[in-house]
Write a structure and sequence with these properties.
The protein is an all-alpha fold. It has 2 domains: 73 residues, no CATH class; 172 residues, no CATH class. The chain has 14 helices and 2 strands, in the order ααββαααααααααααα. A two-stranded antiparallel ribbon has the order 1-2. α1 packs parallel to α3 and α6 crosses α8. The longest helix is centred in the last third of the chain and has 24 residues.
């Protein structure tokens, strides 16, 4: 596909989405930023040559247009990560650099904020009044989750946040929270099977301390991320894609719940799936955690 043709296709997509037009300069910038590969020279039968874009480059460029339409302020680091997670050909060395950069950005922004003076091992350190204040500072839970009965007790919520940001401790609350989230949708037999799955996976899904500030604790997520290699990243991508697929299946499967099941659980599952799929922050956090989990799984063998 020639440059004028690919720009025409991209601009048609941009117009349909209400996005900014794709200029020649924008196209060149996207290529230089490794969002997709540039054109290759093709010889002509009558002599001479022309530069053509591959079908893969067109598909990636169309995805860039869609991502930009959804969030025009996205950084190129995020574009590369999103494209790579979707299976597009992005240099993996750029992904490693981008993931470290974006994950560090999350930690600086206190994506998971550390509750003050909370002792997760005993639950002591905050009065009931202080615990409620910490919960208010975290903001209200989405009404869809409240309606579905998925609101966590204050102590469980604080413990989960603490495990994510504090010095490494046994990551029991994460598994407990996952079990509480899934159990309402499972039969008694299903709950028993799911509990066994969580128990078996606990050694590999240790997120304790991963979202803590590296200048405050040892073994923060940045230190763990520095230890992963390209193989861990590839496995992390597959694990993240699996989690996303499971969330999508759960959201769509809710359409087949028995008539007596209220609509609230369906809406909650749909919101979880949309957040994992559309949120840049959760996309970065998810890929980082999955890659670190892949690395730790290999170390335990």
């Amino acid at each position: 596909m020639l440059k004028d043709t690919i720009r025409a296709v991209l601009n048609a997509e941009a117009r349909s989405l209400g996005a900014e037009p794709v200029t020649e300069r924008a196209l060149e910038d996207w290529i230089s930023e490794d969002l997709f590969k540039g054109p290759t020279e093709k010889g002509l039968s009558g002599g001479g040559s022309e530069w053509r874009y591959s079908p893969a480059a067109l598909r990636a460029a169309l995805e860039v247009v869609r991502l930009k339409a959804a969030s025009p302020e996205r950084r190129n680091t995020v574009f590369r990560i999103r494209l790579w997670l979707l299976g597009f050909d992005v240099p993996i060395n750029r992904i490693a650099e981008d993931l470290e950069s974006e994950f560090s950005r999350l930690l600086r922004r206190r994506f998971f904020r550390n509750p003050f003076r909370y002792d997760a091992s005993s639950g002591r350190g905050l009065s009931e009044r202080e615990k409620e204040r910490e919960r208010r500072r975290a903001g209200p839970l989405d009404p869809a989750f409240v309606d579905a009965g998925l609101e966590m007790p204050t102590d469980d919520l604080l413990r989960l946040v603490w495990e994510s940001v504090s010095d490494p401790i046994k990551a029991s609350q994460l598994m407990k929270s996952l079990n509480a989230l899934a159990s309402p949708f499972l039969s008694e037999k299903g709950q028993a099977i799911f509990a066994d799955v969580l128990k078996g996976g606990e050694p590999y899904v240790d997120v304790a301390g991963l979202f803590g500030a590296p200048d405050e604790i040892e073994k923060s997520g940045l230190e763990a991320l520095a230890a992963i290699n390209e193989g861990d990243l590839m496995k992390g991508r597959r694990l993240y894609q699996f989690v996303l697929a499971m969330a999508d299946c759960a959201a769509r499967g809710s359409e087949f719940f028995p008539p007596g099941v209220p609509p609230a659980p369906r809406e909650a599952l749909s919101k979880i799936a949309r957040t994992l799929r559309e949120s840049d922050e959760w996309c970065v956090a998810g890929l980082a955690v999955c890659s670190i989990a892949a690395h730790r799984a290999l170390q335990t063998k």
